[in-house]
Amino acid sequence: MDPKVFSGTNDALKRRGQRLAEKYRVQLKESGVENATVHVLASHAPKQASKDWVTENKVDVVFAGSRGLGAVKRFFLGSFSQFLVNNLECDVMITKA
Q: Are 64 and 81 within 8 A, CB to CB?
């Protein structure tokens, strides 16, 4: 695969993540939540990157979506949301995506 194709796809995903983060930031502010921050974390190793970022930034709570993978897919791919629950030192809220 052409690395430029992958890079373009990755950039598109980052932009989509940033748009979603802004949408949720606005919704939080409109709901009266003033001290919330919303971040997009892009990494080739998202589990460890998330754990490191949460620890370094002293995060109070993480909200994450669950895709609802079946047992077989979850066994082979692993569950990111389950990793967060088991490995982060802060509170974690999982929602159905």
A: yes
Query: How far apart, in whole angstroms, are the C-alpha atoms of residue 71 and residue 73?
Result: 6
Q: In sequence order, what are the beta bridge partners of 93? A: 63
Name the token pair of 26: 């606005």
Residue 52 DSSP code: H
Tokens of 37: 């921050």
User: Average of pLDDT values for 43-68?
Assistant: 86
CA pair distance 20, 64, nearest whole angstrom: 13
pTM score, whole prediction:
0.66
Which residues have C-beta within 8 Å of that of residue 66, sequence separation ≥ 6? 79, 81, 94, 95, 96, 97
**C-alpha distances out from residue 49 to 29, 30, 33, 54, 56, Å:** 27, 30, 26, 9, 10
